[in-house]
Specification:
The chain is an all-alpha fold. The protein has one domain. Helix content is 86%, strand content 0%. The protein is elongated and about 65 Å long.
């Protein structure tokens, strides 16, 4: 196993993690931001107010983006299986 292969695996792993978690994190952050603006303008300081909308919007986002996320993860897994012979030194 060479340093180039290790760097490639690390880069692809980070890229896959960012790609798959990005949409859900973005939806969660935007929801929290909008709810905090709503709370600031209405002066409602209930801490649990943001929980339900975040959960609902993340579930909707997961339903919409879930198949794409699975395809990204499957592609990454297939690439890892192709690289396994290089990792073990066989072939």
């Amino acid at each position: 196993m060479t340093q180039d292969l290790i760097m490639y695996l690390g880069r692809e792993t980070l890229y896959t993690v960012i790609l798959t978690s990005g949409p859900l994190l973005l939806v969660s952050m935007l929801t929290g931001f909008l709810i905090s603006i709503f709370q600031a303008t209405t002066q409602i300081q209930e801490q649990t107010l943001s929980f339900v909308p975040k959960v609902v919007l993340i579930m909707v986002c997961l339903l919409l983006v879930g198949p794409w996320m699975i395809n990204v993860l499957l592609t990454f897994t297939r690439n890892i299986y192709v690289i396994i012979p290089q990792l073990t030194g066989v072939g």
